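Read as chain and fold; for instance:
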Amino acid sequence: MKCCPSYATINMYSERITRMKQVEIDQDECIGCGACVELCPDIFAFNDDENKAYVTTPEGGDQDCIDEAIASCPASCISNKEA
């Protein structure tokens, strides 16, 4: 496996390119419900001082868990964009 300057991972056997994604929470939009933290504690944590969730693992992890957190967020403030 090789990596190019645009951070795309190239699988030499299938010629398939997978771009890396980065998980983000828009802090201005977060209402502090904590649903993402309950669903994906390995990716998100809660800041009690600011009463908002934040990302502990921006490079992501379990994609199904991240997708569920995005779908469950009442403020729609979680994104998983290509880096």
In short: DSSP finds two helices and seven strands in the chain.
